[in-house]
Amino acid sequence: MKKTSFKLAWQPLILLIGLITVSITNIRIYWMLIDDAYTILISEKISAALLKLDFQGLTQILFETQTGRFRPLYWILNWIVYLVGGTSPSIHRLFHVALYSIICFVIFKAASKLTRSLNWALFCSSLFALSSLNLENWLRLGPVEPWLGLLLLLSIYFLVFTKYLKWSLFFMLLSFLTKETAVALIPPIFILFIGEKLILKQKSQIKRILISLIASITLSIFSVVIVSQIHGGYSGNYSIEITDVIQRFTEYLSLSVRGFSPFFELSIFIFLMSLIKQMFHRFKSKFSRSEFYGTVFFTAYISLVGIQAPWIYVLERYMLPANIFLCLFMVVYLHKLWVYILNHTRGKVAFILKVCVALYVINFMGAGALKLLNATFVQVSSTRNIQNVTKYVAKNTPLKGNVYMNMQKGDHTIEALYEMDWHLQLFYILPGSDYH
Question: What is the extent of the structural domain holding 259?
């Protein structure tokens, strides 16, 4: 495929300026009463275990033997950030927005290769960055999905767009160590292998992809074996009843429609029309590499959504890895539609069409940016209020005294109850109090 360059291009500069603009507000968010203190607590336990050379204790922390989850690399990455930032929320936030920005730029690079257009690459990366479905991942430090999404994206990127198989396998390994749902890599790599073998017929690629497929299956087996040995905690939150799984899967699809409409529907329609055409011609008509890769990315999206369906909670934040590949899929077929329209319109009609589409996209992106900024400002205010309350409690609670919190029942209340305890211990050095 034709190489694209970032030199003297305004599109990546616009992306960078946009990310910096929203990041300035994000780094002002203080610690939240959900996950933040727990992450610091785990990092401190890792440091303590290493200082004592307690490798058994370290293994229990990293492999979460009591919670039923398998994400050792996630805790190691958070620990590295902790070593740099300590208990400074601004530094942790800086790492967070850097992670999010890297994802956007890798999407930009991949989309530029798919469409050979930096304008479409900017559209694709902005569509991801400003999607309301990714809002919680943008605001919170705790979710593992941004790390998982980046590693899965890098693994596929190096496999599809470069000759560096070793880097693809390296990031694949890291993704499996980050979250157990990385097993969703198998279907897209399998489709990639079948496509290269039967449709594109590039022998140089087939061997690389076969190695990658074998590696993904091997790592999946390893991951399943490890997770099967862990019982209790989160492992009880799975339901494999077929009707429940289908219902949750459709709920995730509904979220995609809501978050990316009308681009989601348009790209699906063009994809289906292209697929029907290929089936009618028995896949003998011209099938571009970009279209094929779009199919691979769509498979990755379906696989990543499907792997979440057995989990009983349907939450937007779980969709970030799937959203990455969905955006790459959409840009392929939306670009195909746009090229077709321009080839069949001329003069004033084409000009008016370009203006209308540009205005709609600017309005769509602007609305997303305003929603993101508004939610960020709300969190800045909310977390500062939490900071003031926690300071007050720390100042007015005697050592080993009792703290009573009047809160409604619910999961968030339980998390806040635990987090308040950890906030007081970690950030205000008030150990030993009882919370009710």
Answer: 11-378
> CA distances (Å), 254 to each of 264, 300, 344, in order?
11, 17, 33
Asked if residue 432 has pLDDT above 50, the reply is no
* 330 found inside a domain: yes
Quote the number of domains for the chain: 2
Q: Which residues pair with 435 in a beta bridge?
A: 403
Q: Are residues 310 and 389 in the same domain?
A: no
pTM: 0.91
Decide if 150 is inside a domain: yes
3-state secondary structure of 131: coil
> Length of the chain in residues, anyone?
436
336 and 233, same domain (yes or no): yes
Per-residue model confidence as pLDDT tens digits over 277-303: 777 766 555 668 899 999 999 999 999
**Are 320 and 131 in contact, with CB atoms under 8 Å apart?**
no
Mean pLDDT score, 344-361: 90
The residue-averaged pLDDT of 252-257 equals 95
* Residue among 83, 98, 113, 209 nearest 156 (CA): 209
Considering the domain architecture, whether residues 367 and 414 belong to the same structural domain is answered as no
